[in-house]
Amino acid sequence: VAGGNGQGSGAHQLNEPRDVIVDKERDCLIISDRSNRRVVRWSRRNGTSGETIISNIDCWGLTIDENGSLYVVDSGKNEVRRYRRGESQGTVVAGGNGRENRLDQLSFPRYVFVDRDHSVYVSEWRNHRVMKWVEGAKQGIIVAGDQGQGNGLTQLSCPRGVVVDQLGTVYVADAGNHRIMLWPNGAKQGSVIFGGNGAGGQSNQLIVPIGLSFDRHGNLYVVDFGNHRVQKFNIDSNA
Prior knowledge:
The chain is an all-beta fold. The protein has two domains: 1-110, 6 Propeller (Neuraminidase); 145-238, Beta Barrel (Thrombin, subunit H), CATH 2.40.10. It is 0% helix and 42% strand. It has strands at 19-23, 28-33, 38-43, 51-55, 59-64, 70-74, 79-83, 91-95, 109-114, 120-124, 129-133, 141-145, 162-164, 170-174, 179-183, 191-195, 209-214, 219-224, 229-234. It has a four-stranded antiparallel beta sheet, with no helix packed on it. The chain has a four-stranded antiparallel beta sheet with strand order 5-6-7-8, with no helix packed on it. A four-stranded antiparallel beta sheet has the order 9-10-11-12, with no helix packed on it. Strand 14 and strand 15 (179-183) form a beta hairpin. It is globular and about 45 Å long. The mean pLDDT is 93.
């Protein structure tokens, strides 16, 4: 549905894309075309090429809210920007204050999730944590990790994908620990819900999980990067 014309920088090509979302209102895909340093819009109706909507950006994760505003992680600038429809510059909604571990900073942010209140959740590869930035906030709130890199229940290792349910429960792809963790709202430690049994290809194992997504039935889908597969888990039964 997008690319498939070899690695390259042409309008009909992609180069190491990192994330994709569906813009239902415009019936198109929005793709983080990272190695081309651009975000592209690609029609779902037999689109043969993409349109660059953001350029010169070290883009990783992206998401869209119910108003059609686009949120994009710029790992090079250690920030998340929101682009309302029609905007070209966007507004910084998380980070943007240098690459360190203060509450107003991000360090190598990777993936982003936005809840109904327009709070932004962002995973940080270097700080081994997930931060929540309430709309309009000048600094974030730690919702997972930030206890150094490790495999304890208070720790994360190079987290990637993050999704949050209506109760504020944070689900994290704890890539470096080959596990998926659940952090209840306000909790100081999480619990392992899948994986955590070492890197491997068995049904109870993962290798560097990076992407997470829920369907309407509450099933969790995990991009199991190192095993070249997508796994589906039922949260209620942990299977």
